[in-house]
Design brief:
78 residues, mainly alpha
Length: 78
């Protein structure tokens, strides 16, 4: 199957099938494509990693988005 044929078939796939393809492409590229033109600074990446670590250590801490959004609106307005 040629690249052109593959590209023509992609719109016919279900969302689940397209997700499988995304995962496979990421595996083949060793997830490098996810970082191209990365807009995050090293400091921002470190902050995200720290927050993810905290989440893993304290899974009881997260709140639903609706609640977080409500708190943000109350604090900063709409």
């Amino acid at each position: 199957m040629s690249k052109t044929e593959i590209l023509e078939e992609l719109p016919k796939l279900t969302p689940e099938e397209r997700q499988e393809i995304r995962v496979k492409l990421a595996e083949l590229d060793r997830n490098e494509w996810l970082d191209s033109d990365d807009p995050l600074s090293d400091k921002e990446k470190a902050l995200l990693e720290a927050r993810l670590d905290d989440l893993e250590k304290h899974p009881e801490k997260p709140i639903p988005w609706a609640e977080a959004e409500e708190q943000l609106k109350a604090r900063y307005g709409e």
